[in-house]
DNA sequence: AAGGATGTCAACCGCCCAAGT
DNA sequence: CACTTGGGCGGTTGACATCCT
């Protein structure tokens, strides 16, 4: 097994570019696996943080406006140190940025007299997580691809000729969970199969599924194709 | 001019939670 | 039920910039 040195600290412009290129092409599917495919020697966590706080196209850069400042103060009085909740009220600002802004600009310059928090640190009157995974999936359908070593036990790729749309005269691929029924919404149209291998399986009913055993060998290829294709339908 | 003090903020860490197994 | 996993959260650190004497 090859030893991979995980890089830490500041991101270089080259790393940023790799990340941007990758996400633009393939989207975000799994933070832990993504750096490997993107050619980054970083942890998934590090990648996620960099993307969320800096590389994401909708992050607002530059100093806080007066309005934003007022919102931070007001929300801090209401919510305390729930930075991510406060950041939701400030489009383009991240929790990290709000937290930094508060500590460096507000806490000291205003003093506690004007910005009393209603609750002590760690107290969470409102559950931190209000969104469930199902809710999020509804907001934006996400293709889930499981490529763990136990791949074949958990889930499979399926190709269903019937699912082909008129857009492309090709086979379709979906991902699925064992308990999940065929879902046309998650159908992905592909042009071709990897490495010219034949993975076409015909199904007469929607719950007939086939496992592609050689998946692991062509994981990268498939994931890239899936992500490309996924982008077509989202 | 110099170098110590202070400020800024990107990125890390440990912990937490929801969902899956 | 317990355990694992992925990702989200807030506290904190430390490199670098700027200020101050």
Largest sheet: 3 strands, antiparallel
Strand content: 5-15%
What is Rg?
Answer: 23 Å
Number of helices: 9
The chain-level structural class is mainly alpha
Q: Could you report the average pLDDT, rounded to the nearest whole number?
A: 60
Distance from N terminus to C terminus (CA atoms, Å) equals 38 Å
Strand order of the largest sheet: 1-2-3
* Total beta strand runs: 3
Overall, the morphology is: elongated
Features:
3 strands, mainly alpha, DNA-binding, disordered C terminus, elongated, 234 residues, three-stranded antiparallel β-sheet, single chain
SSE topology:
Blueprint: H1 13-26, H2 34-38, H3 44-55, H4 66-79, H5 83-87, H6 95-110, H7 133-139, H8 151-154, E1 155-159, E2 172-177, E3 188-189, H9 219-233
The protein binds a DNA duplex (21 and 21 nucleotides) through helix 3 and helix 6.
Structural notes for this entry:
By secondary structure, the chain is mostly helical. It contains 9 helices and 3 strands, in the order ααααααααβββα. The chain has a 3-stranded antiparallel β-sheet. It is elongated. The two termini are 38 Å apart. The C terminus is likely disordered.
Short description:
This protein has 234 residues and is mostly helical. Helices cover 39% and strands 6% of the residues. The chain binds a DNA duplex (21 and 21 nucleotides) through helix 3 and helix 6.
């Amino acid at each position: 097994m090859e030893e991979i040195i995980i890089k830490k600290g500041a991101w270089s412009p080259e790393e940023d570019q790799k990340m941007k290129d990758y996400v633009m092409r393939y989207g975000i599917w799994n933070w832990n696996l993504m750096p490997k495919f993107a050619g980054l020697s970083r942890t998934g966590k590090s990648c996620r943080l960099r993307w969320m706080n800096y590389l994401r196209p909708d992050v607002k850069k530059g100093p806080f406006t007066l309005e934003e400042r007022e919102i931070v103060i007001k929300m801090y009085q209401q919510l305390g140190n729930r930075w991510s909740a406060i950041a939701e009220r400030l489009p383009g600002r991240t929790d990290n940025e709000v937290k930094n802004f508060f500590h460096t600009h507000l806490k000291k310059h205003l003093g506690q007299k004007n910005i009393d928090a209603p609750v002590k640190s760690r107290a969470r009157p409102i559950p931190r997580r209000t969104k469930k995974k199902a809710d999020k999936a509804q907001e934006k359908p996400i293709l889930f691809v499981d490529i763990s070593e136990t791949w074949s036990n958990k889930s499979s790729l399926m190709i269903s000729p019937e699912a082909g749309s008129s857009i492309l005269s090709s086979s379709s691929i979906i991902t699925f969970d064992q308990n999940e029924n065929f879902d046309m919404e998650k159908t992905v149209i592909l042009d071709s199969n990897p490495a010219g291998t034949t993975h076409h399986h015909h199904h007469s009913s929607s719950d007939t599924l086939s496992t592609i055993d050689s998946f692991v060998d062509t994981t990268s290829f498939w994931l890239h194709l899936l992500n490309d294709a996924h982008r077509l339908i989202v």
